[in-house]
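Take a look at my tokenised protein here and describe the backbone shape.
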Amino acid sequence: MNKPAHLRGKNVHFLPLGLGGSARNVTFDGSHFQVFPYKNILDRIEKTDRVIDYLKMDIEGFELEFLDNVLNDDVELLSNIKQIGMEVHPDRRASRRDRLWRHMHRLRELQFSLVSSEPNLLALNKFYYGEKEASCCYEVLWINNKFKTK
């Protein structure tokens, strides 16, 4: 997050902002930074009404805040996203896992299909959920069926 805003490609924006459920300052792993709702970031880059080909998020646990916010307050913004790639952290806490599952079901209701879900192989923190070994984080990919071509 200590990099200035820049374009990584013609249509690939990097902003030194965190994505979360509300606008505020946070501290994470000793770093201080700002997080903003998805709509605020789209407004900032003037892309609110544009189609987003691929939204990639690795936001270290803030994915639930993002999903809470966008699925409850700004759901219309999801209709312009073709693909969502994100790292999710299901956690040992049942309440967090349950929230994540509810959001996944809601994405399905909105015509997104989960096409890939794999453990993050770089993640060192594994835990057991019942008798099954689980990773602390997974890389998931959703596609918006609205954009599928036959």
